[in-house]
Amino acid sequence: MKTILEIKNLSKNYSGLKAVDNVSFKIEKGHVYGILGPNGSGKSTTLGMVLNVVNPTSGSYEWFEGTTSNHDALKRIGAIIERPNFYPSMTAVQNLELVCKIKNISKDKIEEKLAVVDLLARKHSPFSTYSLGMKQRLAIASALLNDPEILILDEPTNGLDPQGIRKIRDIIQDIAKSGTTILLASHLLDEVEKVCSHVIVLRQGKTLYCGAVDEMNHNYGVVHLDAANRDDLFEFLKGQPYAVSVKEEMEGFKVVLNQPVDLGKINAAAFAQNISLNKLYIKKQSLEDQFIQLTNHN
Ligand SMILES: Nc1ncnc2c1ncn2[C@@H]1O[C@H](COP(=O)(O)OP(=O)(O)OP(=O)(O)O)[C@@H](O)[C@H]1O
């Protein structure tokens, strides 16, 4: 698998504040990656560093397996890290023609890229008449003009209404299907869950999780149990291989699982130890619960 970007122990300090703290991850070709974290967790700073607009305090990164300098790599990257900004009185086509001129690239792809972002019908309208969603879509078209190998987006749906959000997400997925690798920063778990295959979760500049979105979701839940004799039940639970942790609460015990369990077998095993359960049920944790747990308690 071709590596598009490798970040190694990247850190950025702002007068004592660790905005990004020893972050490492790899972006492989063809996947959609999300950098997920609450406001101020270091997402934009991380993107700024790999796009050569923020100087790292320490650590390094390498584009395209080191086959090109970080400066030349930028020609193979499409990035939108600021609010879309075009000339208000110029049309979409005129603005994109200007982008081609500035970047010294061919104008041949303008129509094709406007089609990708569903703006062909409005291609001759002035930018000032566009909705926020359309402005964002034009920015995506602009970033695609040089057929980049990777598209980088910082909070691509910020400020959009639900329809606008849906449209941008559909477009991102279409672009990914056509083979372009995508890296997007978002504070929205739902966005990352819907759009990304892989996620790097940041909190206060530190990586809390890095891996497949599916695997982050892969958990076996929590079993809730209770019995008249809690001491016996606690002893029993402590020895069970499926129990990551056993916590006593008002309503009984909560056991976090590390594997799937059969509640019938748990009941039978407890009964065999003379423990008669008066409560036994399982609750699966949602991805949202896990994200909140990750970002709050680490
Ligand atoms: N130029 C700067 N000077 C000083 N501190 C900065 C600067 N840029 C960012 N920071 C701080 O670094 C931390 C990380 O900011 P960053 O913008 O990377 O986070 P973020 O996850 O992208 O958040 P948001 O979604 O709010 O933009 C924050 O505490 C921020 O205040």
- The overall number of domains is 2
Number of helices, counting only DSSP H or I runs of 4 residues or more = 11
Kindly estimate the percentage of residues that lie in beta strands according to DSSP. Answer: 25-35%
Form type: elongated
Calculate the mean pLDDT score and round it. Answer: 92
Give the strand order, joined by hyphens, for the main sheet. Answer: 5-6-7-3-8-9
For the termini, the CA-CA separation is 32 Å
Radius of gyration, Cα only, in angstroms? 24 Å
- CATH top level label of the largest domain: Alpha Beta
CATH architecture of the largest domain: 3-Layer(aba) Sandwich
InterPro entries: AAA+_ATPase, ABC_transporter-like_ATP-bd, ABC_transporter-like_CS, P-loop_NTPase
Domain ABC transporter: 5-229
Protein name: ABC transporter ATP-binding protein
GO molecular function, one term: ATP binding
Protein model, in words:
This protein is α/β, with parallel strands linked by helices. It folds into two domains: about 5-215, P-loop containing nucleotide triphosphate hydrolases (Rossmann fold, 3-Layer(aba) Sandwich); about 220-295, Alpha-Beta Plaits. The protein is about 35% helix and about 30% strand. The strands form three sheets. The chain has a six-stranded mixed β-sheet, sandwiched between helices. A four-stranded antiparallel β-sheet has the order 11-12-10-13, with helices on one face. A hairpin with a 2-residue loop joins strand 11 (about 245-250) and strand 12 (about 250-255). The longest helix is centred in the middle third of the chain and has 16 residues, at about 160-175. The mean pLDDT is about 90. Bound molecules: adenosine-5'-triphosphate. Adenosine-5'-triphosphate binds near residues 14, 37, 41 and 44.
